[in-house]
Amino acid sequence: MAVTTPAPSVVPGFEYAVRVAVSSAEPVFPEACELRADVRRFSYSTDRIADLTTDNGGLLRIDDETVEIRISAVQTASISGCSVVLDLVRTDVQPENYLYLRLSLPVMSPITRGHP
User: Fold this and answer.
1) CA separation (Å) from 55 to 32, 33, 42, 105?
2) What are the residue ranges of helices labelled H in the chain?
């Protein structure tokens, strides 16, 4: 079942962080899990905007049901359009486990920009 929850907009050129909580009978993000997410302009895009992992700090496990998504200012600087998409995969298990958690994040152009 898809659930839509408003998220703050990504602003190109600025850091972005949002926490996502998922309810499940089993832990979705167990301790020491490793995660990966590709940020793309749209799902079938061949161009990856950002590669987020638990190793590079782009994904941070908060608890068994919560993960924080972090996109650096350098990574958001290349974002254009009105949204970006990402989904989560557990990479610490074999085969890797697709988590069926897909996010579409709105993008908002900053008004204040280009100052030294």
Assistant:
1) 11, 10, 24, 22
2) 73-76
Instruction: Report the domain count for the chain.
Output: 1
**Residue reference for tokens 């309810």:** 23
* CA distances to 13, 16, 42, 77, 110 from 114, in Å: 10, 18, 27, 12, 10
What is the percent of the chain with per-residue pLDDT over 90, rounded to a whole number? 84
Tokens 């995660």 -> residue: 35
112 located within any domain: no
Q: Which CATH number do you get for residue 23?
A: 2.60.40
pTM of the model: 0.90
Distance CA 25, CA 11 (A): 35
